[in-house]
Specification:
The longest helix is centred in the last third of the chain and has 33 residues. The chain has a six-stranded antiparallel sheet, with helices on one face. The protein has one domain. The chain has about 150 residues and is an alpha+beta fold. β5 and β6 form a beta hairpin. α2 runs antiparallel to α4. The termini are far apart. About 40% of the residues lie in helices and about 25% in strands.
Length: about 150
């Protein structure tokens, strides 16, 4: 589901914005899009409320990335309307106008699969983005626990 449509709480909106900034920190040429999906009945029929989807577009086809755009799908443990959803996994797809070129999922060995894989340095950056995204969502949980502890003291 579009990240812009999922930002139903201030905390989740901040996490989405932080995720976009984090990705752009690793890929500064990319332009963020918080609404990668069309808003029509056919697309809405496939909407997954447990997924927050962002896309990032490069100025042109990038030979190191082997794609023109990347779709980043954050899988959450509950509907994003909840205050603090937990990040369960990340799926990043490298796309061109014709098709998906590769995908990297945080399942198994976190290695990309597909017909045209990015260069090893890009794979390392993508894996680091995934680690940073998990840390971002974990930090939000730790901050909430720290605040609760401070209030209890």
């Amino acid at each position: 589901m579009n990240a812009a449509d999922q930002a139903r709480s201030l905390e989740l909106a901040q996490a989405i914005a932080s995720a976009a900034v984090l990705f752009r920190g690793h890929f500064p040429d990319a332009r963020a899009n918080l609404t990668p999906w069309r808003d029509d009945p056919a697309t809405r029929a496939w909407a997954e409320t447990e997924s927050v989807d962002l896309s990032f577009h490069f100025p042109g086809w990038n030979p190191r990335n082997q794609c023109r755009s990347m779709l980043v799908q954050l899988r959450l443990d509950a509907a994003p309307a909840l205050e603090r959803p937990r990040l369960l996994g990340v799926l990043i797809r490298g796309l061109t106008y014709e098709s998906e070129r590769w995908r990297l999922a945080t399942v198994g060995d976190w290695q990309p699969t597909g017909s045209h894989l990015p260069q090893p340095a890009v794979i390392e950056r993508l894996q680091q983005v995934c680690r940073d995204l998990f840390a971002l969502f974990d930090d939000r949980d730790n901050q909430a626990h720290d605040q609760a502890d401070d209030q209890a003291a």
